[in-house]
Each structure stands twice: as structure tokens, then as C-alpha cells.
Design goal:
The complex is a heterodimer.
Chain A lengths: L29 H14 L5
Chain B lengths: L2 E3 L1 H4 L2 H8 L7 E4 H13 L4 H16 L4 E3 L2 H6 L1 H11 L4 H12 L4 E4 L2 H4 L2 H10 L6 E4 L1
Parallel strand pairs in B: 1-2, 1-4, 2-3, 4-5
Classes of the chains: A mainly alpha, B alpha/beta.
Chain lengths: ~50, ~140
């Protein structure tokens, strides 16, 4: 999975498990959801 | 610091990182037009369906998590036709889409327009003057 060093303010990762697609499995943790979609977008070549 | 992100900015890693790291939705603004343009660019450039889907998910998540405000253009197109005309007249080499982005940034009282569009960047000086005349003394163009 792509790791972006600039995403320094991603907050708690305390909670729930997400699928790599970003589908929620349990209760949402916003920062983690953002990280997942950001990484997926990088991997898909959406962000240059 | 309030920033307007045009279509170029929505496809740029550093810009999206800035949105992610913002403190609230009020700091980062984009528009119906910018999102439509960015998605259309992916399609026209032949990017995969997965890439298009990931772009939509990214924007959706940034909005849902209160990192990004999405505004529509009614105010600019209906109420600010004078501003649009001014932009087109004074910036010369600028297309209608870019003029709308600039008008949106000014209308929404943004401090910066974030873009890689050379037509906007090349008119930085004129834009700063135009924004000042419309009540924005600290307006700038952030080149990505």
C-alpha cells in the first residue's frame, strides 16, 4: 500500500477495520478512511 | 487561509495532501465545475474505470469528512456577470472555464487559487489587482 510521508496529520487509527476499497466494515474513523482513499487514488494513478 | 482548488489541483498529490491536512471544510473549496473537469480529464485521457472510481471516492470522502467544501456556480453565473466580464476583458488570454474558477475564488473570498494552469498563473499580477478591487487585499495564486 502506498505510504505518503506528507500525510502527517492523519489522526487516530484506533478503531475499525476497513476493506482496501474503503468499504466500511465497522464504525468509521474519518482519518483512516481518508488515508485509504488517498492511497487507492495514488495507486490508481489519479494523483500526479 | 481559504483556498480554491481548480480541476488541475484536484489531480495533484500535493494539493490533495493540503486538503487532507486542513483543519476544516471552510479552508478548502472546490466546485461542481472543477470536479466535472477533473473527472472528464481522466476519462478523455483514457484512464481506467478504476482510476475514475478512485477519484470519485477520494472527493466523496474528503467532502464527507469535512475537509472539502463543494460549491456551485449559480452565484457567479447569475449575479456576478460583471466580474466574469471583467476577468475575460482584463486577462485577455483566458478561457471561460478558467474565468469561472477565478470568479468563484473571488466571490467566495478565498485567499488563494490553487492551480497549475499557466493561463491563470501567467496572469497572477492582474488577478491580484482585480481581486483587490473586489475587496480581497490578500489574494494570491498558488502554483502547484
Amino acid at each position: 500500500m502506498y505510504q505518503d510521508p506528507d500525510l502527517h496529520k492523519l489522526l487516530d487509527k484506533k478503531t475499525v477495520v476497513y476493506e482496501k476499497t474503503g468499504e466500511k466494515v465497522g464504525e468509521r474513523s474519518g482519518s483512516l478512511a481518508i488515508e485509504i482513499v488517498f492511497q487507492a487514488a495514488m495507486k490508481a494513478g489519479v494523483l500526479k | 487561509m481559504k483556498k480554491y482548488f481548480d480541476a488541475c489541483a484536484l489531480g495533484n498529490r500535493a494539493s490533495v495532501v493540503a486538503i487532507v491536512n486542513s483543519h476544516s471544510r471552510a479552508e478548502c473549496i472546490t466546485s461542481h465545475l472543477a470536479i466535472g473537469e477533473a473527472l472528464s480529464n481522466l476519462i478523455v485521457k483514457g484512464e481506467s474505470e478504476e482510476a475514475c472510481k478512485q477519484f470519485v471516492m477520494l472527493i466523496h470522502t474528503l467532502h464527507r469528512e469535512r475537509k472539502l467544501e463543494i460549491v456551485q456556480h449559480d452565484d457567479v453565473l447569475v449575479c456576478c456577470d460583471t466580474l466574469l466580464s471583467d476577468i475575460k476583458e482584463r486577462l485577455g488570454r483566458i478561457d471561460g472555464t478558467d474565468a469561472i474558477h477565478i470568479a468563484m475564488a473571488i466571490k467566495k473570498k478565498c485567499n488563494e487559487i490553487v492551480t497549475s494552469d499557466q493561463d491563470i498563473i501567467g496572469n497572477r499580477g492582474k488577478l491580484i489587482i482585480l481581486a483587490a478591487e473586489n475587496g480581497l487585499s490578500d489574494f494570491g495564486v498558488h502554483q502547484i
